Automatic annotation (TrEMBL), chain A:
Its cofactor is Zn(2+). The keyword Electron transport does not apply. Belongs to the metallo-beta-lactamase superfamily. RNA-metabolizing metallo-beta-lactamase-like family. INTS11 subfamily. It comes from Mesembrinibis cayennensis. Coiled coil: none annotated. GO terms for molecular function: hydrolase activity; metal ion binding; RNA endonuclease activity. Gene3D superfamilies: 3.40.50.10890, Ribonuclease Z/Hydroxyacylglutathione hydrolase-like. Residues 15-232 form the Metallo-beta-lactamase domain. Keywords: Cytoplasm, Hydrolase, Metal-binding, Nucleus, Zinc. This is Integrator complex subunit 11. The gene is Ints11. It is found in: Cytoplasm; Nucleus. One of its GO terms (biological process) is snRNA processing.
From TrEMBL, chain B:
Residues 305-433 form the Beta-Casp domain. Residues 549-573 are annotated as: Disordered. The lineage of its organism: Eukaryota, Metazoa, Chordata, Craniata, Vertebrata. One of its GO terms (biological process) is snRNA 3'-end processing. It comes from the Eukaryota. It is found in: Cytoplasm; Nucleus. This is Integrator complex subunit 9.
Length: 599, 658
């Protein structure tokens, strides 16, 4: 099993995800994200690593998209339509539904507003989505004869999934982004004890053990409430789908409980649509919402109204959810510019911001921003950061490792220093290898799989039947012949192997003459030998046959008088090669003579 | 492999499969046709039904007149309706490990099985099956419980008494097995034992068997099941459809290469074309309403009703019915309509595409929004205020024995302007109507059964080619009423094995192999030998570990180190008997080369004699004789172990070991 990454990929950077895995001769690309912090060629992954050797479609067996965030799927139309890939792309139903909307939205901002060329078109998004195959949770999708994939619930956002990829005897689990604690609208990620050879886990919050969610929520509500009370405006930059719904539910219930009147708006465009998706894909939300949706659909908000551009200049307090979430373009940035100068106002960043975005700048303390046209924007409004992104924290990552029991762990999508800390923790606690390759670095992991073969039922039954008798717990030694023919492996009994190959058995037999001093008559000698053997060989079947011979298991002993010496008897001990040990033992035993006093 | 057949109803099956070491129940359908023998349960006191005369035996004895009533020439049991359960005595149902459910109609007996038999296993079903199955059960319990009936008749069930009754009561089977409806707590307990599964999900049972649900195309979440181990595959086909209605299409390809295919749940109306029936339904509905009459559609709260509403959605405007109210009355009407919209992943492609827009997949959302379709939990409450005639009412139960439908039959039965249209195929409409006769109301029979017909079955079987087909006996002969229609039976080679209620079948299957894993260390130690071109052999001596029905071969433990004398015994106790067995030998000994070898090893007096079958090699001084034949070698010597071992090893050099 070897494992590569496309440069600049998801390694020690939260910029975007795009990972290439080679497993048992199959090549699978995991996610195809774009980098929000760049506006040039660097925003898309560099596929020349593959294309220098041929077409993407020939090289890749399939592409898997874990969820609809653009840092995981934003480069997909570029990849499939502009670089050129015609193979299957797998994602869950909600991701398939929502992904094209976000891509189109992103395209509009980039091309229509910023006027960039050399970008994918609406038609390309549509053509790209035609290559998508939707998968159910837990469905085993047979990509081809050898390669299969299976999706697990990941929490994080609607439709997010972890994927298990299996080829031959080897398997990899890729988590995408996930969340191990249920929240107001999504459930927790779950995976069974699938014991993959490798677990590729995101590690956005590698070191954080986040304080209780309830505290964070209370803090958030308090800040919003205080600002609104003093007549300020609150801007919450969000992505249309995901945390937005979580925070909407939070504010909606708070407004209801506190009987607040200040308006809450959700920026235009995606709002209605977004909530529709949540209603139609309610089976992907958490148990509570699913249970009560017939009586009350949590995504039908009473207090949250659609935003109009003109509202931004309205006097008085208000709360606005606006897209996009990192303040890098669009409506949220527009509103931010309008409100930034007033210290009564507040902007709450509920998620991670990529380097290079306005969001990242103000979070790192910058208060004078250079905007387009050399304009300087002074930020006087309060800036708050509150982690509401639904990523697993260190505790969650450890929990997932405990659930899946991987043999190796590989951390991606995080920052080097934090990952190093987590890596040590994982190696200490689980005694598995943990890797954290840098961007563009290739990691190779060797596995030593066991080999499945077909065993003939006859042989297996024979063996288990023997084993069942005295002690079930004792492992049994079995003897068989492995026939290897055209890549098929069959384990059969030696007899059957001979028969199948049309070969005859060659019997090798030994007969030894053992001389014994005994003056008695032949049959008395035989009786003495019989009693002697019976006394010594307690665990064996020793029989005295009517024709005067003795058998020990399948070994035959006959006695004749010596032709010349009446006082000597000759024992003929006869056995086959299969009884070699016992036969050899018997002759040496008899050679020592019979004990005195037996009659 | 055995199959225990607990139900004789071909579309409400209940079979138990003993497959390898697991006991798997396939569906637990509840035969509700038994309720046709009971009087309807009216929601509102019905003077007609309460004044029916008690039934009197021919000899004038009246001891049954409390239990049995005479109504329009038929005799009915005046009691809480009862259902015919699957057989519970044929095998100990507490030994059932898992229950696989194929669709929501085939799980209605689940509470009887999980709550009364000591069942401790797991039930597997898809999410829509469970959700809609719950709605069906809820409606059933609700419509029976809200009309409390003090009386529970049992005297008539006495075998001696039953003999004296008129048909069909006289011929009713297994009446002692009939049971009253379960309660909601029992339903909840039963449903809590279900584990949700998705299509094509592979579920391991005890490491021995793998089961997988496949889309069957019949209803939301309906599935066929594959039950397989590494070497044998049983396909269980139950309630499948090839018509394009709302569910995801049937997965046929995965049924290929089955050793046994169990086929149940075919269409109950093989002669009716579902599309034609829908057309007839719409026409009759339009005619009645135009003439000022009401239309009653007895139906289940989920399933075909979604398709009918969709047809009406396209039909009402063109038919000028835009102002006619459509009512859907059921305690679960709202839930059913809501649930239908959230199972995007289980729908056909067209409907999925709508969800991606995002729009509700079923147009009944729009009918509700525009107030054309209204839904109510029952006739009491809001409905009585909103009720306008003429109208169309969808309500249950299709047996006409309980539920709000009873009220509408009483209300509208006397007018010839009204029409009752039967669309559900589960009950004979004449039997259903019997206690309401004489009726002035028009009755139209448009059974819509989208399940496989015999032409589709034979095409399917040709395509997936199972080695053996197992089916209920009803499918192996033409229907009793159409005995000349030999096309209405399953035709395949070899002929299907048929079963009937309370029968045990032995499924034909011969197993020859099992999967075993060779650990990497052991694999490394093997020495393959090419025996023939392309065929290699390796002898394997290994320790067999068996856990959870999985077999693994490992390197035998190293022989114990020659120990300090005292501890020897204990050590050898711990170590398994691992004296390696001697391999089998094959090949033959070329005498000339053998003699050369002997001479090379210092035997100078070798003499060879020819015999009939081979040769005898004599070592005169050692008084040793070696008989060599094509397939055997016999070494006869004095008790001289070093000599014997030397000769043995010389002989072995010429032979192959297995």
């Amino acid at each position: 099993l070897s494992f590569f990454r496309l440069g600049p990929g998801a390694g020690q950077d939260v910029g975007r995800s795009c990972i290439l895995v080679s497993i048992a001769g199959k090549n699978v690309m995991l996610d195809c994200g774009m980098h929000m912090g760049y506006n040039d060629d660097r925003r898309f992954p560099d596929f020349s690593y593959i294309t220098q050797n041929g077409r993407l479609t020939d090289f890749l067996d399939c592409v898997i998209i874990s969820h609809f965030h653009l840092d995981h799927c934003g480069a997909l139309p570029y990849f499939s339509e502009m670089v050129g890939y015609d193979g299957p792309i797998y994602m869950t139903h909600p991701t398939k539904a929502i992904c094209p909307i976000l891509l189109e939205d992103y395209r509009k901002i980039t091309v229509d507003k910023k006027g960039e060329t050399n970008f994918f078109t609406s038609q390309m998004i549509k053509d790209c989505m035609k290559k998508v195959v939707a998968v159910h949770l837990h469905q085993t999708v047979q990509v081809d004869e050898e390669l299969e994939i299976k999706a697990y619930y990941a929490g994080h956002v609607l439709g997010a999934a972890m994927f298990q990829i299996k080829a031959g005897c080897e398997s990899v689990v890729y988590t995408g982004d996930y969340n191990m604690t249920p929240d107001r609208h999504l459930g927790a990620a779950w995976i069974d004890k699938c014991r993959p050879d490798l677990l590729i886990s995101e590690s956005t919050y590698a070191t954080t053990i986040r304080d209780s969610k309830r505290c964070r929520e209370r803090d958030f509500l308090k800040k919003v409430h205080e600002t609104v009370e003093r007549g300020g405006k609150v801007l919450i930059p969000v992505f249309a789908l995901g945390r937005a719904q979580e925070l909407c539910i939070l504010l909606e219930t708070f407004w209801e409980r506190m009987n607040l009147k200040a308006p809450i708006y959700f920026s235009t465009g995606l709002t209605e649509k977004a909530n529709h998706y949540y209603k139609l894909f309610i089976t992907w939300t958490n148990q509570k919402i699913r249970k009560t949706f017939v009586q009350r659909n949590m995504f039908e908000f009473k207090h949250i109204k659609a935003f109009d551009r003109a509202f931004a200049d309205n006097p008085g307090p208000m709360v606005v959810f606006a897209t996009p979430g990192m303040l890098h373009a669009g409506q949220s940035l527009q509103i931010f510019r309008k409100w930034a100068g007033n210290e009564k106002n507040m902007v709450i960043m509920p998620g991670y911001c990529v380097q290079g975005t306005v969001g990242h700048k103000i979070l790192s303390g910058q208060r004078k921003l250079e905007m387009e046209g050399r304009q300087i924007l002074e930020v006087k409004m309060q800036v708050e950061y509150m982690s509401f992104s639904a990523h697993a924290d260190a505790k969650g990552i450890m929990q997932l490792i405990r659930q899946a029991e991987p043999r190796n762990v590989l951390l991606v999508h995080g920052e080097a220093k934090k990952m190093e800390f987590l890596k040590q923790k994982i190696e200490q606690e689980f005694h598995v290898n943990c890797y954290m390759p840098a961007n563009g670095e290739t990691t190779t992991i060797f596995t030593n799989p066991s080999i499945p073969v077909d065993i003939s039922l006859g042989l297996l039954k024979r063996e288990t039947a023997i084993g069942l008798l005295p002690d079930v717990k004792k492992p049994k030694l079995m003897h068989g012949t492995l026939i290897m023919k055209d890549n098929s492996f069959r384990l059969v009994s030696p007899e059957q192997a001979l028969k199948e190959l049309g070969l005859a058995e060659h019997q090798l037999r030994f007969t030894c003459r053992v001389h014994i001093q005994d003056p008695r008559k032949e049959h008395e000698t035989v009786l003495r030998v019989y009693n002697h053997l019976k006394g010594v060989l307690k665990d064996y079947s020793v029989q005295h046959l009517p024709d005067g011979s003795i058998t020990v298991e399948s070994i035959l002993i006959q006695a004749t008088a010596h032709s010349e010496d009446q006082g000597t008897k000759v024992l003929l001990v006869s056995w086959t090669y299969q009884d070699e040990e016992l036969g050899s033992y018997l002759t040496s035993l008899l050679k020592k003579g019979l004990p005195q006093g037996t009659s | 492999f055995f199959q225990y057949c607990l139900s004789g109803h071909p579309t409400l099956p209940c079979n138990v499969l003993k497959f390898k070491s697991t006991t798997i129940m396939l569906d637990c359908g509840l035969d509700m046709t038994s309720t046709l023998n009971f009087l309807p349960l009216p929601l509102v006191q019905s003077p007609r039904l309460s004044k029916l005369p008690g039934w009197v035996l021919k000899d004038g004895s009246t001891f049954l007149d409390k239990e049995l009533k005479e109504c329009s020439g038929h005799v009915f049991v005046d009691s809480v309706p009862e259902f015919c359960l699957p057989e519970t005595e044929l095998l100990d149902l507490s030994t059932v490990d898992v229950i696989l459910i194929s669709n929501y109609h085939c799980m209605m007996a689940l509470p009887y099985i999980t709550e009364y038999t000591g069942f401790t296993g797991t039930v597997y079903a898809t999410e829509p099956t469970v959700q809609i199955g719950r709605l069906l059960m809820e409606e059933l319990v609700n419509s029976i419980e809200r009309v409390p009936k003090a009386q529970s008749a049992s005297m008539w069930k006495n075998k001696e008494v039953q003999r004296l009754l008129p048909a069909p009561l006289k011929d009713a089977v297994e009446v002692s097995m009939w049971r009253k409806c379960y309660t909601m707590p029992e339903v909840n307990a039963a449903l809590s034992k279900i584990q949700l599964v998705g299509y094509s999900q592979k579920i391991e049972l005890f490491g021995a068997v793998q089961v997988t649900p496949l889309s069957s195309g019949y209803a939301l979440g309906s599935s066929n099941w594959i039950i397989q181990s590494h070497y044998e595959k049983v396909s269980y086909v139950s309630g499948s459809s090839l018509l394009t209605t709302h569910p995801q299409p049937m997965d046929q390809a995965s049924l290929k290469n089955s050793d046994v295919l169990i086929l149940t749940g075919l269409t109950q109306i093989p002669t009716a074309n579902p599309d034609g029936m829908v057309g007839e339904f719409c026409n009759n509905l339009a005619i009645t309403v135009r003439n000022g009459g009401n239309v009653l559609v007895p139906c289940y709260p989920s399933g075909v009703i979604y398709d009918l509403l969709e047809c009406l959605y396209q039909f009402i405007d063109s038919a000028g019915l835009s102002n006619v109210p459509f009512y859907f009355i059921s305690p679960v009407a709202n839930s059913s309509l809501e649930f239908s919209q959230i199972f995007a992943e289980w729908l056909c492609h067209n409907k999925q595409t709508k969800v991606y827009l995002p729009e509700p997949p079923f147009p009944h959302a729009e009918l509700i929004q525009t107030n054309k379709l209204k839904h109510y939990p029952s006739i009491h409450g809001d409905f009585s205020n909103d009720f306008k005639q003429p109208c169309v009412v969808f309500t249950g139960h299709p047996s006409l024995r309980f539920g709000d439908v009873v009220h509408f039959m009483e209300l509208w039965g006397k007018s010839s302007l009204n029409t009752v249209i039967f669309t559900e195929p589960d009950f004979s409409y004449l039997d259903a109507l019997a206690p309401y006769q004489p009726l002035a109301m028009k009755c139209v029979y448009c059974p819509i059964d989208t399940r496989l017909n015999f032409i589709q079955v034979s095409k399917l079987l040709k395509e997936v080619q199972p080695l053996h087909v197992v089916c209920p006996e009803q499918y192996t002969q033409p229907p009793p009423t159409q005995s000349h229609r030999t096309d209405l039976m399953i035709d395949c080679q070899p002929p299907p094995m048929s079963y009937r209620r309370a029968e045990v079948l032995t499924l034909p299957y011969k197993r020859r192999y099992e999967k075993i894993e060779i650990m990497p260390e052991l694999a490394d130690s093997l020495v393959p030998l090419e025996i023939k071109p392309g065929i290699s052999l390796a002898t394997v001596s290994a320790v067999l570990h068996t856990k959870d029905n999985k077999h693994v071969l490992q390197l035998p433990p190293k022989p114990p180190q020659p120990p300090a004398s005292k501890k020897r015994k204990r050590v050898s106790d711990d170590v398994p008997e691992c004296k390696p067995l001697k391999p089998l030998l094959s090949g033959s000994i070329p005498v000339d080369q053998f003699v050369q070898a002997l001479e090379k090893h210092g035997f100078s007096d070798v003499k060879v004699e020819d015999t009939a079958k081979g040769h005898i090699v004599l070592l005169q001084e050692a008084e040793t004789l070696i008989q060599i034949e094509e397939d055997s070698t016999h070494i006869i010597c004095d008790n001289d172990e070093p000599l014997r071992v030397k000769l043995r090893d010389l002989v072995l050099k010429f032979l192959q070991k297995f």
